[in-house]
Each structure stands twice: as C-alpha cells, then as structure tokens.
Design a protein that fits this description.
It is flat and about 80 Å long. It has three domains: 39 residues; 66 residues, Winged helix-like DNA-binding domain superfamily/Winged helix DNA-binding domain (Arc Repressor Mutant, subunit A, Orthogonal Bundle), CATH 1.10.10.10; 34 residues, no CATH class. The chain has a two-stranded antiparallel ribbon. With 183 residues, the protein is mainly alpha-helical. The mean pLDDT is 84. Strand 1 and strand 2 form a beta hairpin. Helix 5 crosses helix 6. It starts with 6 loop residues before the first helix and ends in a 5-residue tail after the last helix. The protein contains nine helices and two strands.
Length: 183
C-alpha cells in the first residue's frame, strides 16, 4: 500500500512544481518519494504540467548568451540546469517573439541533420539547409575521401562481407592453421 502524502509533503511538491529545473533532482527534497510518484500525485492534485516555459529560464538563457557565444539547445540546457525539453520550448518561443534568433545551422556528424545555434537578440534567422538523403551523404563522403584510402577500405569491407557470408574460397593452409575441416 502506498504511503499517504502529508500536507507538508504536498506543500513541498507545490514549491517543486512551481520552480524550473529537473524533477529528478528536486524530488530529493521529498525523502522516500521518487520522481514517478511525485508526478502522479501532482497530476491528482491538478497541478498541470511541471513548470512550463517561465521567465526564469529565459532570463538565465539571456544571461548565458550575453557573452556573444552561439549555443545549441543542449548546450544551453546543460549550462542553466534545465531539461532539454523545457529549454527547447522556451527557446523556440523566444525565437518567435524575436528575443533570440537562429545564428546558423550545422550538420551533426551522426545523421546529417542540422542543429540550430542560437544567439541573443532578434534579427533574421538563418535558413535551415535541406536535409541530405543517404545517397547525397554517401556521394559527398566519397568526394571528400582520399581515393586510395577509400578504395582500400572498400576492398576490406567487401572481403569482410564475403567472410561473414561464407562466400570466401577455402584455403588449405588457413584450414590447417585454425583446425578447420574443409567443406
């Protein structure tokens, strides 16, 4: 059976709910409770969403960006101690109200998507480049790669594929060395 919530715990939960920040970190103020139970109880109390984008997060972001550096949403969230989701909502709202703007987009290394970098102040936003297809990314990689190194790696890849599929001709010496019986 679940432990009942005391009026003091509910008061602390209301404070936590009103403050920006991660619930997982703030729930430490409620000993014996975890983030999941706090979230469920807050919903039963009718508190709504945890701290929707608030001026405090925006003010921290503005103070962070005053140095003139451009930053991604993940970098901003880490620096101000807010969740990426909260920060994204707040930053996108600030871009719509011209308090922040998109300085540039940069392709991520993993999948070719473009990540926005934000700066303080209005102005025109950078335009998002079109998403590259897999074929376009492959062609760009081949164009930038050293032809000799690329040919070597391609040969090595094809050889490994043939070995994995068992399509490599059997070698008597290798069979003898590794104790395999010829097929």
């Amino acid at each position: 059976m679940a432990k009942r919530w005391s009026p003091e715990e509910e008061a602390v939960l209301r404070e936590i709910w009103a403050e920006p920040g991660l619930l997982k970190v703030q729930v430490e103020r409620l000993p014996g409770r975890n983030a999941n139970t706090a979230m469920k109880h807050a919903a039963s109390m009718g508190l709504g969403l945890k701290c929707p984008p608030v001026p405090a997060i925006l003010e921290k972001t503005k103070a962070l960006l005053k140095d003139g550096e451009i930053r991604t949403i993940k970098q901003i969230a880490a620096a101000i101690g807010a969740s990426v989701c909260q920060t994204r909502k707040m930053v996108m709202r600030a871009v719509r109200t011209k308090e922040l703007s998109v300085s540039r987009f940069r392709a991520t290394a993993s999948n070719g998507n473009h990540e926005a970098y934000f700066r303080l102040g209005g102005g025109s936003n950078a335009t998002r480049p079109a998403h590259m297809t897999l074929a376009e990314r492959s062609r760009k990689f081949r164009e930038n790669a050293d032809p000799i190194e690329y040919a070597f790696k391609k040969k090595q890849y094809n050889l490994n594929q043939r070995i994995r599929c068992g399509k490599l001709p059997q070698d008597e010496l290798a069979n003898a060395l590794f104790g395999r019986t010829p097929a």
